[in-house]
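User: Structure tokens for both sequences below?

Assistant:
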Amino acid sequence: MGGIADPRDFRRALGAFPTGVTVVTSRDPAGQPRGFTANSFTSVSLAPPLLSVCVAESAASAAIFSAAPAFAITVLGNRQQDVSALFASKAADKFTRAAWREGALGMPLIEGGVAWFVCRREQTVRAGDHFLLLGEVVAYGHTPEEPLGYCRGAYVDFALSQSALAGLGRSVSVQALLEHDEGLVLLRLAGGALGLPAGHALGPATDPASLLGVLAGLGLPARLDFLFAVFEHAGDQRMSIVYRGSAGGDPRPPAERHPIGAVPLERVADPALRSMISRYVRERVEGFGIYVGDDSSGTVQTLMREIAP
């Protein structure tokens, strides 16, 4: 078979797939910590628990990682772009410039990560100009914080922070598209119309007028994962910010659960909301984006932050 005519274009095509960002660490034969940034990380098996990461044969630490009996993977949080850049560099003092701790099997773990895994090396598999480092997980941990994303040469923000909401300087409606037992949670409004759970701010749950407070009052403990839409209302200064996520618990009226494939869109009186729910149902299969615009027109895009040079 022939090779790729334009490797740079091939790399750009691969970059269209959004990933998380990790730092892979181990120790060299002298016991010194070594590490590099990688997004070619994936879960391989649950029984036994196996993970893998691809390492370039040309990497300075390739020989160390191919022979090390153990390694660790830290999934970076969305405020750790500097850590990502540091471990992607050739700096010799990475572990003096980044906070880390020792985990199981003596493996270095980066502080502030949203998840971490310590693995015993299972095997290495040569694959072209890389090798696949396969490990069995012996210890792990995770937090509810947002991960750092990467797509098309840029870091991706998966959520809008509470401070950003507070700084908008306008009337804000924070809403949620929540899945619950294969259904979508909607609220029954006056006259039988349907709407979304909404609050004047994201939280806290102790504020009954915030989104998290409203959800708590409906008996819906929720996990809000990512932004789904941000749009202005034509003719005034209101802004709607919509998260998508999942909910547990036993919904209380006026909350209703409607099957994803049979949402009664004709009962959603607001046309912008009706369009947004229709898009949600479609993108749940095709893949999600973020709507940015007003209540009549806009674009679906990923919110990104460029990598510093």
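Moving on to the next sequence.
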Amino acid sequence: MGFKTGIVGLPNVGKSTLFNALTRTAAAQAANFPFCTIEPNVGEVSVPDARLTKLAEIAQSKEVIPARMTFVDIAGLVKGASQGEGLGNQFLANIREVDAIAHVLRCFEDGDVTHVEGRVDPVADAETIETELMLADLESIEKRMQNLVRKIRGGDKEALEQERLLKAAQAALENGKPARTVDVADEDAKTWGMLQLLTAKPVLYVCNVAEDEAGEGNAHSARVAEMASAEGAAAVVISAKIEEEISQLEPDEAEMFLDELGLKEAGLDRMIRAGYDLLALQTYFTAGPKEARAWTIKRGTLAPQAAGVIHGDFEKRFIRAETIAYDDYVALGGEAGARDGGKLRAEGKSYEVKDGDVLHFLHSG
């Protein structure tokens, strides 16, 4: 199950530096000029989870396979992108394909790194991007409404549903609010998703600060945190330069480096977790002698659909799931101990998988 987070921001805010660190590669150029990232760079990163290591130890697994998230480094945006300025049209096309947006905001002062607007104001930068996405959404809604006219006249039920949701989004946007502020009923979720509105995507603000401000942030990142709180969004403080340095070190060296800086964990770990929360994702595990593996699902996923993440046939031929809570698995020393201790449960098709469940699926055929 692939989840993509698009890394966006104005030129020269540290997007590509951050992407390099995230993917442990130098695939994205980090040059000091706009549009150095012409094509979106795509990279996968492991989701940090200490529980997986513990399960692997207990199950004596030969292989450990963490969950993965995909990050897409998207070309820098400028004012007027919704009208095709800069790489606007390409930016908008690329961003439609992601599940969530990480807005990288410049929260550092550096005279050697030019700002496209000639000033450091992360809140204004966020508003620039949001405005362009809102304008693009309004244009998209207008076109969609025109295309629906004939179907609506014919009483097409699906077209009427789309029109109702498009009008709700249009009203929000015309009031200066993104589409994600629209209250969408569960039964409308699928149709809403098909509208592909850019401002309907959840947003994480990433405050890129100087190295000596990575722990507590600064006045700029505090303003972003206020903005995020008011919007019901999330914000994390990170120093892209520090993260890029860490990405080139061995794990032990990276830990020592963080200790020297007085940091408890890498900012990227916080960012990945925040992205996970933003997308309402959770993890379940499979563990055995061959491998211990983390699987990503949406919160609220039922057992058959969780099985389908491993293989489509598992969902079609689902019989039941043998389930052990993570804490029970650890406390009782694995599957055999959990079974003997009465902590292994047989769950059916209506079971809602919990974060940290250790599962074994039984299926026919």
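User: Anything stand out in the second?

Assistant: Residues 25-38 have pLDDT under 50 and may be disordered.
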